[in-house]
UniProtKB/TrEMBL annotation:
Protein name in the entry: ATP synthase subunit delta
Organism of derivation: Anaeromicropila populeti
GO molecular function, one term: proton-transporting ATP synthase activity, rotational mechanism
HAMAP family to which the protein is assigned, alphabetical: ATP_synth_delta_bact (MF_01416)
Assigned keywords, A-Z: ATP synthesis, Cell membrane, CF(1), Hydrogen ion transport, Ion transport, Membrane, Transport
SUPFAM superfamilies per UniProt: N-terminal domain of the delta subunit of the F1F0-ATP synthase
Length: 182
């Protein structure tokens, strides 16, 4: 059910933003709303409080965001409050962001290495991946895990390229265990 809600609302604001040619603006505004929600636990508690009326919640949302955000984003937030879907806002925003990435042909890359990569290594990796993936742009998330010993593990969507030394050792050990000496 939560996925259906996030899909329905996420697509609605995405489609409206594209139709009105304000996708970049709405994307920035949604990031602003996410930041506000992350920094204000009281607001989240207020929105989730069962004894506070929808009208009061709408009034507070409008007071906070009107004038700071465009009409589309404020109207969207009011609709979410009126439909009592504020508990799914984060999932809705994540779905929206995924739609924006698809629309703009942006890939999300997770890179795990044994040590921190230098800026030069990151730049070379970006250039190489842009050439072989066909994405217009890439967003990177970097992780350092010394236990992989060396090499990298690169994940793009459901594709994984594991060139870590740890995996190579594990594969060799598995292959060696199959060898029978007579």
């Amino acid at each position: 059910m939560a996925k259906l809600v996030s899909k329905t609302y996420g697509e609605a604001i995405f489609d409206l933003a594209v139709e009105e040619n304000v996708l970049g603006q709405v994307q920035e505004e949604i990031q602003f709303v996410k930041d506000v929600l992350n920094e204000n636990a009281e607001l989240v508690s207020f929105l989730n409080h069962p004894k506070i009326t929808k009208e009061e919640k709408v009034r507070v949302v409008e007071n906070i965001f009107k004038g700071k955000l465009g009409d589309i984003t404020v109207g969207f937030l009011v609709t979410v409050v009126n439909k009592e879907r504020y508990g799914q806002l984060i999932e809705i925003f994540e779905y929206f962001e995924d739609k924006v990435r698809q629309f703009k042909n942006i890939g999300v890359v997770s890179v795990t290495s044994a040590i921190e990569l230098t800026e030069e290594q990151k730049s070379k990796l970006t250039d190489r991946l842009l050439k072989i993936t066909g994405f217009a742009e890439l967003e990177f998330v970097y992780f350092v895990e010394p236990e992989i010993i060396g090499g990298m593990i690169i994940r793009i969507g459901d594709r994984i390229v594991d060139s870590s030394i740890r995996t190579k050792i594990d594969v060799m050990a598995k292959d060696m265990s199959k060898v029978q000496l007579s």
